[in-house]
Amino acid sequence: MKFNNNYDVVVIGGGPAGSMAAKYAALKGVNTLLLEQKKVIGLPIRCGEFFPTARELEKIFTRSQLVQELYNIPDELIAQKIDLVRVFSPKGTSFDVPLKGHSVYREKFEQYLLEQAEKAGATIRMNRPVEKIQNGQVYTSDDVFLPKVIILACGPSRTLLNPLGINIQKDLAVCVQYVMKNLSLEPEVVEMHYGNVSPGGYAWVIPKGKDSANVGLGIRKNFYNENILSLLDQFLKTLHLRGITAKSEKCSTIAGLVPVNGPLANTVIDNILLVGDAAGHVMATNGGGIPVVMTCGRIAGETSADFIKHGRPLFEYEKQWRKECGREFANALRTRKRADFLVYKWGWAAEILMRLLGTKVISRALKCSFVGF
Length: 373
Ligand SMILES: Cc1cc2nc3c(=O)[nH]c(=O)nc-3n(C[C@H](O)[C@H](O)[C@H](O)COP(=O)(O)OP(=O)(O)OC[C@H]3O[C@@H](n4cnc5c(N)ncnc54)[C@H](O)[C@@H]3O)c2cc1C
Description:
This protein is α/β, with parallel strands linked by helices. It folds into two domains: about 1-75 and about 105-170 and about 260-335, FAD/NAD(P)-binding domain, CATH 3.50.50; about 80-100 and about 170-260 and about 335-365, D-Amino Acid Oxidase, subunit A, domain 2 (D-Amino Acid Oxidase, Chain A, domain 2, 2-Layer Sandwich). Helices cover about 35% and strands about 25% of the residues. It has helices at about 15-25, 55-60, 105-120, 160, 230-240, 290-310, 315-345, 345-365, and strands spanning about 1-5, 10, 30-35, 50, 80-90, 95-105, 125, 130-135, 135-140, 145, 150, 170-180, 190-195, 200-205, 215-220, 250-260, 270, 270-275. An eight-stranded mixed sheet has the order 4-6-5-13-14-15-12-16. Helix 1 (about 15-25) runs parallel beside helix 3, helix 1 runs parallel beside helix 6 and helix 7 (about 315-345) runs antiparallel to helix 8. The termini are far apart. The relative contact order is 0.18. Flavin-adenine dinucleotide binds near residues 51, 129 and 290.
């Protein structure tokens, strides 16, 4: 076991949050190391791969300084441009919400983000699982790193979070998804289906080209505790009735977890900053995390560097991300809690309410600006 104090900042996890944290710390001139357990970043893909354009995000997160990577996504990373989200009520009434976005090739997107971190000067080490964090030190099988700041961007995995007394898994959406081709769909339209189709969550169709899509759903265990794949197959039957899957083919099946209980109360523990899914930085209404974890990653990286170079308190990290995205996280959580009650406990009430409120209010709920009724 070697002790290594070459790095000021050690980032654990090379997903979108970790890459951006490493990039923005390195840009400010501190020695930054990123440790990632996977051999190849981005694989296996566990994602619907959709997020709004930077322009749309600016309208949603009005006080946030988005990362440059959200403005300049290279064309080859974009699978499909999206113009609107069609929201389906429990009884199948649809509401068209204009929203520009894109589905991306997630594995290439993550590789691109990691390259950005490396270009900025961060050292990237793949295939390096962190085994534990103890007394502010980071342990891998070969080394013990002694950084001034640790940025924990390990996603919702328990291994490193639970020993710190963090239970991010209190309220998790369990997701399954088929990657499908030969579909008959509108390629510019993302579909979101609410109600019994996906108890405690929603089902989605996210186009990835003119005839292919990610078709999946997320549920929560307190709402449904049976075979989730059979729910997805039932959802496929409804798509079949609409003629979407008549000649379709399933290419692969993926599964993953999304923490949907809003951000943790404390995201700074001694010299550790928690960021991304590890901190609950996910929109509780729709499970969308990519843009917001990237932004919080930037803030974590910059604050770490400012702490090291100028003694800026690490607690400023938490203040800053709350200032930039806290209101939207809170709106999303509030809306989700109301939806839990209405959509999943009293489906008929949700049906009436959605029809009464109409597209405008549904659009505001989707964009996390709805504070309730
Ligand atoms: C099925 C599914 C569909 C989704 N769809 C969308 C979507 O369409 N749009 C959207 O915006 N969001 C979506 N999300 C959410 C989004 O994927 C996450 O919010 C986002 O990936 C969080 O990024 P992160 O960097 O915090 O964590 P992750 O992307 O989980 O990255 C964490 C990284 O840390 C590494 N790691 C973990 N433990 C260790 C360790 N001990 N040592 C070293 N490395 C470690 C992991 O290997 C991983 O690479 C979806 C999530 C799921 C599960």
